[in-house]
UniProtKB/TrEMBL annotation:
Pfam families: Fer4 (PF00037)
Signal peptide: none
Transmembrane segments: none
Keyword field: 4Fe-4S, Iron, Iron-sulfur, Metal-binding, Repeat
Entry protein name: H+-translocating [NiFe] hydrogenase complex, iron-sulfur subunit CooF
SUPFAM superfamilies xrefs: 4Fe-4S ferredoxins (SSF54862)
Chain's gene name: cooF
CDD domains listed in its UniProt record: HycB_like
Coiled coil ranges: none
Domain of life: Bacteria
Keyword 4Fe-4S in record: yes
Domain 4Fe-4S ferredoxin-type: start-end pairs: 3-32, 81-110
Gene Ontology MF annotations: 4 iron, 4 sulfur cluster binding; metal ion binding
Record InterPro entries: 4Fe4S_Fe-S-bd, 4Fe4S_Fe_S_CS, RnfB_subfamily
Length: 188
């Protein structure tokens, strides 16, 4: 078993805070900044909502992952069970998107954005798409000393929980509801 996130669909409110938190964590932004850029940046988790179902979808860290097996360049690799993306090898062929049983892989543009003037830098010319998927906020967790992912932290319904490789379930405690007296006291 590999470290992965699971969702309690009955608790999910489809508020999309997990998506914004993911953008913030992977682009070194505050939550507020990520809200402003959520239409132009790619989240590695996606909320699915129908009339009868709401859930946050992400990489399931599959054993013998189909995305890794189909990748023609070796950009997607499974190392010690963890799936990693080596963006330098990704050619955006979209084969991984086609075989992922969860629809958990997206394409994101990397490199410098183009400017409106005629001068273009090498970094702007080399802007390209690469595959991205949930990486369990590995870098963000290490940089911030966190045990849980950004999406777990942001979920007001506490609909997300982590399963560690040994089977241990990691949940955040429920959010405390503020009393009307506490809320009124903060307005002064």
């Amino acid at each position: 078993m590999h470290e992965h996130i699971q969702v309690i669909a009955d608790k999910c409110r489809a508020c999309r805070r997990c998506e914004v938190a993911c953008i913030a964590a992977h682009h070194n932004m505050t939550f507020k900044e990520a809200m402003k850029h959520r239409d132009e940046l790619v989240s590695r988790v996606h909320v699915v909502k129908t009339d009868n179902f709401k859930a946050s979808v992400r990489c399931h860290q599959c054993d013998n992952a189909p995305c890794c097996n189909v990748c023609p360049t070796g950009a997607l690799q499974q190392e010690e069970g963890r799936i990693i993306v080596r963006v330098q090898f990704c050619v955006a062929c979209k084969m991984c998107l086609a075989v992922c049983p969860y629809g958990a892989i997206s394409l994101e543009n990397i490199g410098m954005p183009h400017v409106d003037d005629d001068s273009e830098t090498m970094a702007q010319r080399s802007r390209r798409e690469v595959a991205v998927r949930c990486d369990m906020c590995q870098v963000w967790r290490e940089q911030n000393g966190k045990k849980v992912t950004a999406c777990m932290e942001a979920c007001p319904a506490r609909a997300l929980f982590m399963i560690e490789p040994d089977g241990t379930v990691v949940e955040l405690p429920p959010l405390e509801k503020k009393t009307a007296v506490e809320a009124a006291a903060k307005t002064f």
